[in-house]
Amino acid sequence: MKQTLAAVAFATAALAAHAQQPIVLKVAHFWPPTAMSQQKVLEPWCAKIAKESNNQLQCQIYPAMQLGGTPAQLIQQAIDGVADVVWTLPGYTAGRFPSMEVMELPFLTKDAEGGSRAAWEIYEKYGQKDFAGVKPLAFNVHDRGHLHNNKRPITKVSDLKGLKMRAPTRLTNKMVAALGATPVGMPMPQVPDAVSKGVVDGYVLPWEVIPTMKLHEMTKYHSEINAPQPGLYTTLFTIAMNQAKYDSLPPELKKVIDANSGAEFSASIGRAWDASAPPARKQAEERGNQFNTIGAAEVEGFQKATARVTDDWIKEVTAKGYDGKAMVEDARALSAKYAERK
Question: Is 146-233+288-340 in the same CATH topology as 19-142+235-275?
Answer without folding.
Answer: yes
